[in-house]
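Interim report, section 4.2 (structural modelling).
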Amino acid sequence: MTVYAPPADTPNADTASARPRTYIEAGYTLRSWLLTTDHKRIAILYMVSITGFFFLGALGAAAVRLELLTPKLDLLSADGYNRAFTLHGVVMVWFFLIPSIPTVFGNFLIPLMIGARDLAFPRLNLLSWYIYVLGGLFTAYVLVAGGVETGWTLYTPLSTKYAPGHTVMAAAAIFVVGFSSILTGLNFIVTIHTLRAPGMTWFRLPIFVWSHYATSVILVLATPVLAMALILLALERALGIGVFDPDLGGDPLLWQHLFWFYSHPAVYIMILPSMGVVTELVTTFSRKRVFGYEFVAFASIAIAIIGFLVWGHHMFVAGQSMYASMVFSFLSFLVAAPSAVKVYNWTATLYKGQLDLRAPLLYAMGFIGLFVFGGLTGLILASLALDVHAHGTAFVVAHFHYIMVGGAVSAYLGALHCWWPKMTGRLYSEFWGRISALLIFFGFNITFFPQYILGWLGMPRRYHSYPPEFQSWEVLSSAGAVMLGVGYLLPLVYLLWSLFYGPRAPANPWGATGLEWRVPSPPPKHNFDEIPVVTWKAYDYPPAREEQG
Amino acid sequence: MTSWLPFWPASASAYADRVDLLVWAFSALIIVLAAPVIIGMVWFAAKYHRGSPADRSDAPTRGFWIEADWTVVPFLLAMIFFVWAAHLYYIVRTPPDGAMEVAVVAKQWMWKFQHPGGQREINELHVPTGQPVKLTMTSQDVIHSLFLPELRLKMDVLPDRYTSIWFQADRPGTYALRCTQFCGTDHALMGGRFIVQEPRDYEAWLQASAVDGTLAQEGERLFRRLGCSGCHGMNSAVHAPDLAGIYGTQQPLADGRFVLADDRYIRDSILMPKRQVVAGYEPIMPSFAGKVSEEEILRLIAYVKSLPREGSKQP
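Predicted structure of the assembly:
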């Protein structure tokens, strides 16, 4: 493995002789971790717990894919299958995808990237993690007590009157974990506003920070709507207050409006931080300034704002008015424009760069490919007449997995590889990193591309048994899932291995320009001995510097 | 047009063909928009990988006009598809006059259909070719969604609401009928057959199916049995609105508003009669909530709909 020396003109604090104590060395007891207020340690706490939830959610997926190997119901019971996909959805969405990048990498990197010693509210940050864990315990209870079979969307009146499982407890788990999101978002907004180092102007912020800013706005504004809706749902189920119950004059569609008012922006909660990560990876590993920095930064904000106005595209066949549907369809097309800006600008960033095809860049390029395809098939679903056919089928499953798994999970893993040396002080195996990136890319496509075809052929989602003519596509999909599973397990092995046996990482193994690379790896407890004064643009790579003068 | 593709679904109507054409065009759009990214990434990775001798001078890091172009051009292209798809959606949401109406009631986990002539069937729907058919649908319990893949059509079926869908199937055959809104334990089994027949075969099927009378006749019997005719009948002494000819007209309400007398209004008037009282009448009608099933309400609606406009006394 080649380890690049940092560029000579990059300030390098990693002098072996007077090395300050790292944040990891600040204490080895369990207590020192569980009561820490250091944003870096809290990020590690999140990383450990989120990894646990990822593999729990993956178990649900494995059960679903195994059951679908044959057209008949043979492995699980009907309700067992319904519980498996509900578990998969609830855990992956609320306990992995939404918190993953912000709580792990946002927490770890935002203060370092903006030249701050910590987040604005360190104790609130720790509290967010405890709230996340509490929500997780509720989920674990639901799992042990027998599960819930409503699907992650909890549509009424199925969830309020007809599903026998532990719906109230599941709603409570989502409610609780939502508060963790709100607190994290609030903390990021205040931090980015108030704790930027001298000279770190808004237009010198890394795009990663911009995208987390946009994400935090969604977290703070949308999550309370979900919280309110969940309270109504729980009251409806427990006391029969009649908000959603048609027999009592309620409206079952009201739930869908409230749910998607949060849950559509939630997709951008998952994807905006991913876009931030990918921007960093593309620019770092091509050693070139982000093409059109301002466009990319503002596109994040545009996506966050328009993202609030498109929820009705989930309801084209639900019985809302035809003209409402047309407006929502139009607005959904509108959100494609800033997304296109991002994708084309990433590609243009690679042009005439010095592409270092390491695992993080492979993950980023995989993200771009899958996101383009997932996004454009999203336009098919935003097209009214086409959605009428594809809605509720495997086509939708394929689409949102391309965005949320092909996109968000690839970005998470890309971030993990890029900042692993910074977080742990160790270098991972580049060979295995590349293998896992390729396995995940190909495994993912084999798993989910067949589901586009299945959906267009008329295979509905959430079916435990299906017409036999669909079987070959289902088998192909399950085979891809095995490959994908291996791709996900590999990093667990070689990254853990690197913790103990990996070579020591220098402060700036990739020759990047961000502030986080100017402190030692791993960073000292207080990040910076002296708060830096920023006098350079973001992504100040050599060719970019020339045009500055 | 699409049979040469092994993984392309069969289509049973001209409308479905139009949807397929849009999908093919959309696929081309996807390729046009994605190709620059995919080709660009692979090409740049090959040419500009670290250590390659490629010329990297004058690498651009911004370009307002090029960025404006690749924001606006894809958006305008996409707009063509938005209008195209919205137009097809408009067609499918606007039933023509004179469509044959079939009543649909969904419940966990079966589909119940009733034809205008009163023929009932479960998990099977027979329709004639060349005839516009409108399904008026409601659910007894949770939300379901009726999906007819070979027509490229689906619509949610909700409790306490009527949704509708219309089509004109042209190609005789037996097709799929599925539920696509997750509705509980046996969601996957809530399907059936959608049978499109030549008109004479459909006629033969109608004749062979036992009936107690048309939907409207059944509704009329029910109207008497439930005692509705005691108040709403022509010779009744009770001051209740005459129902003849009201269907599809605007009814003045006691609070000054007007309401369209459609399926939904008639249903509400049966179940929640005090909610919308017609101007000039006392709110004396009792609620029939819990006393009539969804299917019975559909029959009552069919009966009210069948009452002729002539001879109606205006309040």
